[in-house]
Amino acid sequence: RNYVMETGLVVENLHVSRSGKEIIRDVSFSLKPGEVILLSGANGAGKSTLALSLLGHPGCTVDSGKITFNGQDVLALKTFERAHLGIFLAHQEPPAIAGVSVAYVLRSAREAHDPLTFSYPAFHQELLKALEKLHLDYAFAKKELHAQFSGGEKKKIELLSLLLMKPKVAILDEIDSGMDEEARKSLLEVIGELRESGTAFLIISHHKDVFENLPGVRHLSF
Question: What's the whole-model pTM score?
Fold first, then answer.
């Protein structure tokens, strides 16, 4: 299948292997600004491998196929270059970084993304608003990244990152796992808010019922 688009993420006939074993075979889809795809499938089917491949993880080898973003071939780009274009991944198991606060990592990411216009006071106000939206206090942002956090709290950090980075494409890998009802409500609110500004979502989840009522959601199964 051929896709003709000027904007958005396009995956064509993608084949990906890890450690010499083919994990993804002939996957194609397109994701335009503001769209949502809900990806489901059994454990080990390759959902997380797809997510990592879109960001250029070195452990994933693209054997054939194409990944383009806004008409640009991204296969030759490194992970940070793809992130700079606006592709975001919320990890299923985000790593902890001792001695580095949540606020510092988010501030550094924003500054690296747009160093010419970055303003610390403006960022600080955005951070406070995002924390309030997620019903978190500032002490949360001062803690070490993903260290001594529960599974649900780690996912709230990913939500905080989403609100502050405002990506063009957000890949959410099991972000609803470990969330309570209130956190899932916040997740849906964040998705709705960012969709209005054009963010597209590829959501990987075993709980399809959480996202099925999103307007216009499309389904992709492995």
Answer: 0.92
